């Protein structure tokens, strides 16, 4: 099993440390998720506390009537003054945003829109955020060709940067079969993309949680190499843990997150994120909450770590 190699692999990766000044690889991009629809985060405060300025804003989904109408979280209009104030704050601080659709809850645009409608919905969401960087987070069944066809159309129209965020099945299994089908559809449609592996909410299969997340990411890289054999799959790959207590029990500590970061740098991954900045505090203990991590930590401690403190 892949994770059994971690006893040898992890010390080597930890010794590699952060990317050196003479390393020819681009620096690891960091853009943690923000639940922008909730309104529970002072983004300017987060930036001041951490220096982190780039964020992935979640999630654009269909409205409550389940029509093909993009909203933040199903209830907040794309042109919401509150959301626009957050966007303005990020821009003033020199940051960039990625717009994320889908997620764990709500009605997917990807499930209720036709291909042409979905392209238009993506366009509207990006324009509202002043971005051309789209993350499509698919955690439930969709029709792959509808999604990837819309992404191909959008990319031809405006050169949008596209990431597909997908769950992983485990440390020795890599991608789920549904995720593999989606990525094969994207390859067939000619979509240029990166892949974001959600290293959260899976069975660690007896490994320590940090080792399991690293092994799962290696397994995803192997799956990508089977789909894109001529690509540098590590450069097109990103990783996203869930900080603190995960929904299914594992706990991502600061030490675990540091291991994942150093692994990402040593492997030359394209980016890292985490779910979510809204949870980056110790406002609860031992529980799963959208507004706190469930572990002992200081406020924005993960954000400081991911933003360069590792």
TrEMBL record:
The Swiss-Prot or TrEMBL record annotates one GO molecular function as: endochitinase activity
SUPFAM superfamilies the UniProt entry points to: (Trans)glycosidases
Q: Where is the signal peptide?
A: 1-21
So what EC number does this one have? 3.2.1.14
Query: Which controlled-vocabulary keywords does the entry list?
Result: Glycosidase, Hydrolase, Signal
- The protein's name: Chitinase
Q: Which organism is it from?
A: Catenuloplanes indicus
């Amino acid at each position: 099993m892949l994770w059994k190699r971690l006893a040898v692999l992890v010390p080597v990766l930890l010794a590699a440390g952060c990317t050196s000044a003479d390393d020819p690889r681009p620096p690891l991009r960091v853009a943690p998720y923000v639940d922008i629809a909730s309104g529970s985060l002072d983004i300017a405060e987060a930036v001041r506390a951490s220096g982190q300025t780039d964020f992935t804003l979640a999630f654009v989904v269909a409205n409550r009537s389940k029509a093909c109408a993009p909203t933040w979280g199903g209830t907040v209009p794309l042109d919401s003054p509150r959301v626009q104030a957050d966007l303005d704050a990020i821009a003033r601080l020199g940051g960039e945003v990625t717009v994320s659709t889908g997620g764990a809850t709500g009605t997917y645009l990807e499930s209720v829109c036709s291909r042409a409608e979905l392209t238009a919905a993506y366009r509207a969401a990006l324009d509202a955020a002043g971005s051309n960087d789209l993350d499509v987070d698919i955690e439930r069944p969709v029709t792959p060709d509808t999604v990837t066809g819309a992404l191909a159309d959008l990319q031809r129209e405006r050169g949008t940067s596209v990431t597909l965020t997908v769950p992983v099945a485990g440390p020795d299994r890599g991608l789920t079969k549904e995720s593999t089908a989606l990525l094969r559809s994207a390859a067939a449609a000619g979509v240029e993309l990166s892949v974001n592996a959600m290293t959260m909410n899976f069975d660690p299969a007896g490994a320590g949680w940090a080792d399991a997340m690293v092994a799962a990411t290696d397994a995803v890289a192997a799956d990508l190499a089977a789909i894109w054999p001529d690509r540098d799959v590590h450069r097109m790959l990103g990783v996203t843990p869930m900080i603190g207590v995960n929904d299914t029990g594992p706990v991502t500590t600061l030490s675990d997150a540091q291991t994942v970061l150093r692994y990402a740098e040593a492997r030359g991954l394209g980016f890292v994120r985490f779910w979510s900045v809204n949870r980056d505090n110790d406002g609860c203990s031992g529980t799963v909450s959208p507004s706190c991590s469930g572990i002992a930590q200081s406020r924005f401690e993960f954000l400081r770590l991911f933003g360069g403190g590792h």
